[in-house]
Protein 1
Amino acid sequence: MKKSHLFILAIIAVASAIILSTTADASVYVGFSEARQRAAEGNNTKVHVVGKLLRDSQKRPIDLQYDPMTDPNYFAFTLVDSTHVAQRVVYNQPQPQDFETSEQVVITGCMKGNVFMADNILLKCPSKYVKKDLKGATASVK
Amino acid sequence: MNLFIGQLGHLSVIVAFAAALVAAYSYFQSSRGRALGEEDPSWLRLARGAFFVHGVAIFSVIGCLFNIIYAHRYEYYYAWSHSSNHLPVQYMISCFWEGQEGSFLLWIFWQVLLGFCIMRFNRKWEAPVMAVFSGVQLFLVSMILGVVLGGVKVGSSPFILLREFLTDLPVWKMNPDFVPKDGTGLNALLQNYWMVIHPPTLFLGFALTLVPFAFAIAALWKRELTAWVKPALPWTLIGGGVLGVGVVMGAYWAYETLNFGGYWNWDPVENAVYIPWLVLVASLHGLVLWQKRRTGLRTAFALVVATFVLILYATFLTRSGVLGNASVHSFTDLGLSGQLFIYLAAFAVLAVALLISRWKEIPVSAKELNAYNPELWVFVGATVLCLGAFQVLFTTSIPVYNSFMGLIGIKTNVALPADQIAHYSKLQLWMGVFVALLSGIAQIMWWQRNNAETLINSLTAPTLLTLLGTALVVLLVRYNGLTITAPYIVLTLAGLFGVLANFSTIFNLLRRGIRLSGGAVAHLGIALMLLGILASAGYSNVISRNVSGLMYSREFTDELNNDNVLLWRNESAPMRGYKLTYTGQYFEVPGVPGYVDKQFLYRTDDDYKAVARAPIAVDGKTYYKTGDTLEILPENTYYRINYKDQKSGEQFTLYPRAQVNEEMGGLLASPAIKKFWGHDIYTHISSVLDPRKEKPWSEAKESVLSVGDTIFLNDYFAVFRAVEAAHETAGLNLQKGDLALQADMIVYGEKRQYHVHPVFVVRNRMVGRVPDEVEDLGVRITFNAVDPATGKFTFGVSTTQKDYVILKAMEKPFINLLWSGTLLMALGFGLSVRQRGGKGVIAEEAPETEATEEASSRAARPQPVS
């Protein structure tokens, strides 16, 4: 066997190791019921959950709990996933600005006891990129 | 309404497209079936003319688009959505490339200039290289073509009118010539000097990758499989330097402007440029290997092609919308995904097919490399870079796999790793280790004859010093109460070795009087960058811990995350090593250095104008007198935080910023950074009382007072000193016959006293009241009524939530190593370009090693393998 063959084998080995490590680290999008099931099985890997906030009739979010005077690092809210399962979520960071106006919330983390501990929150806000509102022209487009 | 300029612009785009088509075809024809340098003169003339027309048309497109932005022509969607009346001129340049169309245009522009350079300096290669250039231009211009062909939209024109974009606004029915008064403005995050120079640098880097690619394709086509390396090498060097600097510029902008707490977040948009840069640098090593040591040509070919394909892939990733949820800041999806994909696929397939068909003809070195050949180590280094690029590529593409599976009807739910930083770092760290070690070894070996003895001689000193240095670093880290893991120790070892080995190479070469080696300087810079990244990211230290001793009782006390502290206005709080005081909100006033206290300003109906309540003076110079109208930048509120070092008593002030930015979803925090030689203190706001919302005031408590009385306002008290005629201050627009009175009160706060002047106005028998507020104390006083009979005055006092900020502060040790390493790297690239530019003659480069060189290159003369 030539040295160059050994070298190519080594490259293939490293590349496979990279693919394996990515597969192992890759997360999944799940609903809360599956997140609970995972926790029950003792699987504490972090998952992604996509959901919406609970809102009242005036479209105001309800059940947000953030009191910076008591603890600026504690924010809790209820998220409803696409299969309509509601879950209390705790986030050990200040409440993200404009959390209330977001249409969709993506969280990563895992279940701890009765709550979902989120370590990251990604907000999708309405009309984030394409400008479609024209002030002074009396109407907006959808 | 000016329709002409847009039509001229759109016409120029079409002319540029047609001319690129003609140029590509005629360059192709002039060279078809002929050897290099023996082109058909009539086709060549036509091709040159066409490319020249193409260039002029592109300049015209740019001129038209800039005119639309500069003249505030809001009838055009591009100006309306990217600019506004208040935008300073220097940022109008940034709006030019804020949109996709403008950034494509920037890319096209650089390639026009590079094309002209090739026509001027690489005459021999002009025809086949420019055929590839024109072909790429054809595709890029098609992205901004904006025509509909057979029901398919080709490209998105930057000259589209507002009424063509927002077609269903009712206003068009009433007035088709409606032009908005103002634009929606440039995203305020991009109003930063880095955003003026970072995108052009990056796109110049993108454009520069086309040059070696075009040479490689020309070489494969013309079967000139070796001669292309020499002219392509200096361009690749420039490309490596420019793209590298562009990436770090982006990182620096993110560090200064975004609030994720660092300079690199492994966001797909960042990765999309990082991946081709790694491969570009690897290809550069392949080219140098061939140019100097006649080996590694196949590697060079493969990597040059891969770099360009990866640039196209990066474009596809960031602009097609495929990233969707995965990235915070990819471009808008303009519905051009299909077109982008065709572009990517066409070039990738054609280039790879051509490469495969000629693969067997590419000369290889007959010599088997052994461990005493520096070529081997350079080659291994290039491989490491490619593997590092592969890791980032494989993970960043996860959303692409999902879309692809969705396309063929399989639903997948794979997401990016939950902790991306940990995922990428754990492997990129080892890439860094190998890059630093190999660069040190290869640089030392490159410049000497190698056998066991010379190697031991030259490696002993740097190795011993490295071991010593690493031991010292470990001890120092431990001494400071921190831990250091095994991979970090290895990276420290490798980084130090890289620094010392490259430094000793530079030193030896200078001593032997040869010259400063660009390669060694660049590698020294890279090793320093690695050490800087290790220190600043690995030991980034949150200092805003809750040290009040209060424990909040919550569900998970064991892993409580106390990274943020709450600071009340004008109250001090301790933080690790510092005492912090938040002392109020400030605005930026153009023309006045630093920031101006909000309490010195009366806001007016125009958001961008305010009236000075007190003289605005900095360092003894008065910029505005009381009552002057001044301009402000209302989007940005700065929170003044005073830091006092508890040991030395030294003080400094930081102004972290909160920016009202509807486009990015509301309120955005940007950090403020205090730089010391050995570390940075980095602070950003995590939460504030929203400056956009009206404050909720308590119900007013009324008091009836006579002059001289004292009243209590919650925790403070005030003395009512006098009533006087109101001055023309707060933008009252007093008219003849108005009666205006103002009370003069002094409120005693914790730190200082405040003059408060609530105003009572009678105009046409209507009563008006202008309350006055002490923001520091959260108190507002209204002058409610006057009783002339008794000489008594009624005031209403209301209070509001006392102002506070929640902030996070971090210490970034030795981050300056990263920035200075980058400068060294850029300097090294620059030196190499100057030294190697155009020459590349072995004997001239390294006279010392001439003997070995000649021997080895004789042995390794290119021998085509059949």
Note: Residues 720 and 745 of chain B are 5 Å apart (CA to CA).
Protein 2
Amino acid sequence: MAATILLIVISAVFSQNFILVKFLGICPFLGVSKKVNSALSMGIAVTLVMILATLVTYPLYTYIMVPLGIEYLEIIFFIFVIAALVQMLEKIIEKLSPALYRSMGIYLPLITTNCAILGVAELLLVNDLSQVVAGAAEGISMNLGFALLYALFAGVGFTVAMVLMGGVREKLEKLPVAKCMKGFPITMVAASFMAMAFYVFALL
Amino acid sequence: MTVKAFFKSTAFKSLAVLIAIVLVAGALLAVCNDLLYVSDEERFARSLAKIYGSEVTATEVELTDEERAYQNGSVDAVYYVEEDGNYLFHTTGTGGYGSGGTVTLWTILTCTGSREDGDLALTGIEKVVYDSNSGQTLMANFGDAFYAVFEDADELVAGGGNFSATDAEDGLFNLETGATYTSTAACNAVNTALACFRTVFMGGDA
Amino acid sequence: MNASMKKYGKIAYDGLITNNATFKLVLGTCATLGMSTSAVNSFGMGLSVTVVLLLSNVIISLLRKAIPNAVRIPAFVVIIATMVTLLRMVLEKYIPDLYDAMGVFLPLIVVNCVILGRAEAFASKQPVLDSAVDGIFTGLGLTCALTLIGIIREFLGSGSFFGMQVMDFKIGFFTNAAGAFFVYGICIALFVFFTDRVDRAKRVKKAQLLRVPAQPLPAVEEEEVN
């Protein structure tokens, strides 16, 4: 059991990192990673929404949609759930802490169309844990606990990649770069080197 | 706000349009889902076609629980392929890496004669296709060369022999270097198919 | 007729080059990176996005007067999600190989920024035919870009072209995640480099054209002298 949990953590954060290995959530990775601070805020916001979204979509799919035989409506349902959650979260944060809202809230509307959230909700719709977590023994069936754990650490992995990229880009800003490589191209190449580093975890 | 004013407000109109769109979309998808539904039989036919390389008609052969369990593995299912009279075995071999590690394979056995006439004879293995495993981290190392050993051993198969990853005395040696346990489980999966065919289908002793 | 041809030509040129979704706007990056391991997959992904883009553009354009502004975005999202679900059913039934290859990236077409972006910026304001043309050409621009990346990665990564083995070499880097970022980055840089060149050449040409009538007299005089 402990080994399974450890495997989920390592897989979600490093060897199957959402951004650098699975290519989910690339838009904010390129758009909101100019500074470490904003990257961190975005990462935390995404993690929060990921956990909440999984908490709603997984039971919704397993206990309501499958028994009713309406699995084919999953895309519409999930995107609605995510949009509603993001909207609610935005209102709650605005009420509770205006300071937090100023630092994090502005990223929330962007999250609705973030592939990482819908991606985690869709990825977790499997019967067997080994279909999501590479290297896990077969026969461990998926449940809400594992799903939430995976969502949490997928978010952590997302945040790690965002913050690392923020640091790299803060330095990149000051370097002389060929004109046509400025902006996205050089960021992509930097991401390529980071992906190489993360690839090593998949070999372990 | 009166009821009448509410029905004329933008809020009501917005809500009504949104609900209408959702209902139409849901109805459309429900109809299309019925039209385009992929049944389990169709899914199975597809995976069969992938193994065979062409579409075939297969019927499952009924087996009792005793006929499924063997010393080093179990038979999940057997299909009789009508096009060429061969049998397709879906078997799991035990003895893999770790506790309870297994390898599951598809094995196509070629034969002559028919079961009804009682003159069924095993002539060889046409194809072995990997299906799944449990706990075998080195499974990715197993390439075509490993499975080809099974497919090129017609004489041994027809003569009642088996495969082994550890002891050439037990049968034809087939080992992926560095993955002895996984090789054993794979050999056991094929041996289980052979044993089942020999005892249940040919009615003799393996 | 000529005027409308010109208009559609401009929409097409915008979609293919000026506002190329993949290279210029850098939208829909997840699908681009994730599906470009082979040319066939990236071509399939590009066509799938094109189909969804075309259908959603047409439907949104048809409904543009009926949808109130306040619920615009949710309405668009429902329409796009419906189209993606339809596409998913069709692919699962008729092209199961592509369906398997696309995996989680198939439902993720819903959150592909290109589609919602075109719905918001173009289809919700323009007539049906224009929106259809816009959908097709934005989609084709994306398909070409994706297929190009797919061809490069497949060739360098496994020495094959659309699944056919042409050369016997393998550079594992290009089939990996790192290779995807690298090839995409270099492709954007080259695209920017060449379109900038073309733009500058055009500007120079325009400036020359403008200058010619500005000084017609000396030219005429010169001719007379000759």
Note: The radius of gyration of chain A is 18 Å.
